[in-house]
Amino acid sequence: MKRVWTRFRADQDGAVLVEFTLILIPFLLVSIGLVELGRFAWNRESLSDIALRAARCMAVELPACGGMGGFNASATEEMIRSEARQRWIDPAALSVSLDRDASCGGVAGFSRVEITYDYRAQFSLPEIVNALDRQIEVSSCFPNQD
Description:
Order of helices and strands: HHHEEE
Strand content: 15-25%
Distance between the termini: 94 Å
């Protein structure tokens, strides 16, 4: 029996496979988590940029936001959804609030855009990635050019 145990302890066949498996699972979980964290940050930054562009569009009365004749809320919202679509953000998950006569930082005369996005992780791993399933809220102001 002692000889069998000694031979079993000295046998290294398959040890690399076991070690690789022990390392692979945590490595994949961390990698997937990092990918989702990157997607979350990228979506937040994209939405922040879209909100700034929309606020400027409203304040300057660009053609994309209703033309030179004035501000058009539905045209501005369509521009926001179109830009979101171009950046692979689901426009159906967006909630948009537009205010042409807002106060920002206690100062009146601003156009304000608020966007809320229901972010959902692409990978369903319990409690690791799903912690990112939340709303992204961004807002932006731009002074009106009257």
